[in-house]
């Protein structure tokens, strides 16, 4: 299984915002630091803002900052909010055409594997994977 770039970028945006401490960060700043398209990050930031993970700050020196304490941002919840689906194989999807679905034992194995994956993410918060400001190129946060 591979997370979509959207989920990958969402986790990176949250890590960047956390490393900035309470300082407001801009999409441009994050795009530059990660070498990621500003347009793509705008979509990610918008979704994270709608979900309450980020808080928008309007005005001339606007941007975003964390919308919740880092210890309350559970990685599994972020991934569930940003992944379009978890259909690892055809039979997990709504348009299943597999002829062995009724007898297949692989489904159960893959469902258990997916559950274990999400359970592991649920054990970690943004605070538990935090990096320092110096770990991010171009992040000008307050002293560590």
Automatic annotation (TrEMBL):
GO-annotated molecular function: DNA binding; DNA-binding transcription factor activity
KW ATP-binding (keyword) present: no
A Pfam family recorded for this sequence: Rrf2
Alphabetically ordered keywords of this record: DNA-binding
Keyword Ion transport: no
Domain of life: Bacteria
GO CC annotation: cytosol
NCBIfam families: rrf2_super (TIGR00738)
Annotated PANTHER family: HTH-TYPE TRANSCRIPTIONAL REPRESSOR NSRR, WINGED HELIX-TURN-HELIX TRANSCRIPTIONAL REGULATOR, RRF2 FAMILY
This protein's name: Transcriptional regulator, BadM/Rrf2 family
